[in-house]
Amino acid sequence: MPGPRLRLVPARVLLCLAATGAAGCSAPPEKERNQAEGAIAAARVAEAADYAPAELEAAVAAIKAYDQAVAAGDYRLALNEALSARDTAYQAAKLAGDRKAAARGEAERLIVDLEGLLIVARSRLAGTPPTLSPQAAARTRVAVKRAPGLLQEARARLDRQDFRGVTKLLQGPVQALRKDLAPGSAGRRESEA
């Protein structure tokens, strides 16, 4: 007797699920669309337009696809698009946060690197071995003279959370100064010039 009863339960469950699924798709899934819009707004606040633009654009495109599916009366597709938009927007916000933190770390590292290189540069210019070639010493003097202004601008940009601007501002000068201060590299750079 347990055999037939077990076979009837899955059939009843399937009928209930089919009825629920049909009823669930008889109107546009507005709740899911609203969730997606909220997630997109949160992604914008997290600066996804700057740090995760592809993901943000994909979420916005999914909302547009939702609108098209609703206009066509395909509410099941609309539901899928709304869920996709929501999930993609959440991912955009997370990526933006991660990438922004990495950009901040890079900007702070460059400021610290330049400060440390300035100490070494002043020491080498004062004659501490290994001494610099005349050409490297001339470039280093110029870099030491420019550095306070660069650091001031970099800190102002850091305060404005323009982390990429800090990187763009300092990356070249840090690399050039590092190259001139590396033992044995001054002659190599002059031969490249």
What does this entry look like structurally?
There is one protein chain. With 193 residues, the chain is mainly α. It has two domains: 2-97, no CATH class; 100-192, no CATH class. It has eight helices and no strands. The N and C termini lie far apart (94 Å).
List the helices and strands and how they pair.
Blueprint: H1 2-24, H2 30-45, H3 48-51, H4 53-71, H5 75-125, H6 134-159, H7 163-181, H8 186-192
Helix pairs in contact: 2-4, 2-5, 4-5, 5-6, 5-7, 6-7
Properties at a glance:
193 residues, disordered C terminus, mainly alpha, 8 helices, 85% helix, 2 domains
Short description:
The protein has helices at residues 2-24, 30-45, 48-51, 53-71, 75-125, 134-159, 163-181, 186-192. It is an all-alpha fold and 193 residues long. The protein folds into two domains: 2-97, no CATH class; 100-192, no CATH class.
Distance between the termini: 94 Å
Order of helices and strands: HHHHHHHH
Quick check: average pLDDT? 87
Counted up, domains total: 2
> What does the oligomeric state look like here?
single chain
The portion of residues assigned to helices is over 70%
Report the count of strand segments: 0
Given the helix and strand composition, which structural class is it? mainly alpha
